[in-house]
Automatic annotation (TrEMBL):
Taxonomic classification: Bacteria, Bacillati, Actinomycetota, Actinomycetes, Kitasatosporales
Record region (Disordered): 1-20
Name by which UniProt lists this protein: Geranylgeranyl diphosphate synthase, type I
Entries under Pfam families matching the protein: polyprenyl_synt
GO terms under biological process: isoprenoid biosynthetic process
Organism: Streptomyces wuyuanensis
Molecular functions per Gene Ontology: metal ion binding; prenyltransferase activity
Sequence similarity: Belongs to the FPP/GGPP synthase family.
Superkingdom field: Bacteria
Keyword tags: Magnesium, Metal-binding, Transferase
Length: 366
């Protein structure tokens, strides 16, 4: 890893200077394949839940609206299912072998979304009211717990040695994901968080589950641990690139594309990468930002801040270099992820598809 010295003794990684070109049609086809192949099994798993949890989960996944009527909602990007199917192919197995892994990872991912929305107070996801807003906090908690249980059930009922190995990887990734969420919440109450602490948190919160997604299909297909571990390296750094882009969208994203409020992460006092990098940069904008954020933490009327006040904080983050640094970090993590693929013996068309998905992550707008 190449680095340059940041302020306060921190090491700030460097990055390639340009985003990769993306074959949008090819990536869309990969995502759609993952969604199409995994959704019937995902729906069958959700149908096992007792009422009203089955209905609440169906609403969360966009299959019904708030009144229980069939809907064609936005079910998310489906990056993880796509990775799980490609993972199986990387091991020389058919993509269908990865379906239980794709479903299990998607269940864990949505367990985390249900709980995160409640903890963060997010009222919108995918352009709709969140589950806790529609069905109440208790249902959000219960359905999230149920999805996590279903994830392990889906894998273990396969009854194979490979399923046991896959379940161990999933439970480890889930524990790291929860660690990351705990770190994220704790950082909201601290005046200063280092770049390294932020990267560790985001590696847990996002990198761990993407790492699992891109290894779990290979494990189910009989891959050895060395192959699975190397695929996890790709997924982990892909997750860091993914989260860096999310952090940019959490401040400067278009609400029409993201489905979240303007300045979403600033409203939640998140110590995301742009904020942390800006605070570490030094200089007048950095110092002024630090003063404002310290005052915000003690403010009793933070929730009533105007759009202009959040816009001013975003402008200071950008002036201090936090936006540019985070964009560069996303590209650097992308490069590390793609390099890891060279250490895995796999069909070349599968390698190309994994590279295409990595390219998509760093240029997406939602």
């Amino acid at each position: 890893m190449r680095t340059t010295s940041g302020t306060r003794g921190e090491k700030v990684p460097t990055a390639p200077s340009a985003n990769p070109a993306v074959d949008t049609a090819a990536v869309t086809a990969l995502l759609e394949r993952g969604r199409t192949m995994s959704t019937p099994v995902l729906r069958a798993a959700v149908d096992r839940l007792a009422p009203p949890m089955d209905t609440v989960a169906a609403y969360h996944f966009g299959w019904i609206d708030a009144h229980g009527r069939p809907a064609d909602g936005d079910g998310g990007k489906a990056v993880r299912p796509a990775l799980a199917l490609l993972s199986a192919e990387a091991a020389g197995a058919a993509p269908e072998v990865g379906i239980p892994g794709a479903v299990a990872v998607e269940l864990v991912h949505n367990f985390s979304l249900l709980h995160d929305d409640l903890m963060d107070g997010d009222e919108q996801r995918r352009h709709r009211d969140t589950v806790w807003k529609v069905h109440g906090p208790a249902q959000a908690i219960l359905v999230g717990d149920a999805l996590f249980a279903l994830a392990n059930e889906i894998l273990l009922e396969l009854g194979t040695v490979e399923a046991g190995r896959a379940t161990r990887r999933l439970t480890t990734a889930t524990r790291k994901l929860i660690d990351g969420q705990a770190q994220d919440i704790s950082y909201e109450h601290r005046e200063r968080v280092t770049v390294d602490e932020c990267l560790e948190m985001e590696g847990n919160k996002t990198g761990a589950l993407l790492a699992c997604a891109v290894s779990i299909g290979a494990v189910l297909g009989g891959a050895d641990d060395r192959t699975a571990d190397t695929l996890e390296t790709y997924g982990y750094h892909l997750g860091l690139a993914f989260q860096a882009v999310d952090d940019l969208l959490g401040i400067w994203g278009d609400p029409e594309a993201t489905g979240k409020q303007t300045w979403s992460d600033l409203r939640q006092r998140k110590k995301s990468l742009p904020v942390v990098a800006a605070l570490a940069a030094g200089g007048p904008a950095s110092e002024r930002l630090g003063e404002l954020l310290a005052a915000d933490a003690k403010s009793n009327d933070f929730d009533s801040f105007s759009e202009e006040e959040f816009a001013a904080r975003a402008a200071l983050i950008e002036e201090a270099g936090g936006r540019d640094w985070t964009s560069q970090e996303a590209r650097r993590q992308h490069a590390v992820a793609v390099e890891a693929l060279e250490r895995v013996d796999m069909p070349e068309h599968v390698r190309a598809q994994l590279v295409a998905l990595a390219d998509f992550v760093v240029v997406r707008k939602r």
